[in-house]
User: Which sequence fits this backbone?
């Protein structure tokens, strides 16, 4: 899930709730997603909702 804090955004795992470890400016959404992917996160769409699973929780490996 995406946590929105005023001007900042933070990516948190939908399974364990852990943060991706960095807070980004609201305008840096794409950079945040790329950062998470680089960290091994799995980001995918389920129905209409985006899911964000950290490297520990992703279930496809
Ligand atoms: Zn997790």
Assistant:
């Amino acid at each position: 899930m995406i946590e929105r804090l005023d001007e900042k955004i933070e990516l948190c795992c939908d399974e364990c709730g852990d943060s991706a470890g960095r807070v980004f400016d609201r305008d840096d959404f794409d950079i945040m997603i790329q950062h998470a992917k680089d960290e091994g996160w799995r980001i995918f769409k389920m129905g209409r909702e985006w899911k964000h699973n950290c490297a520990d929780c992703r279930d496809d490996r």
Observations:
- The pocket of zinc ion is lined by residues 13, 15-16, 18, 53-54, 56-57 (CB under 6 Å).
- The CA atoms of residues 16 and 35 lie 18 Å apart.
- Residues 2-53 form one domain.
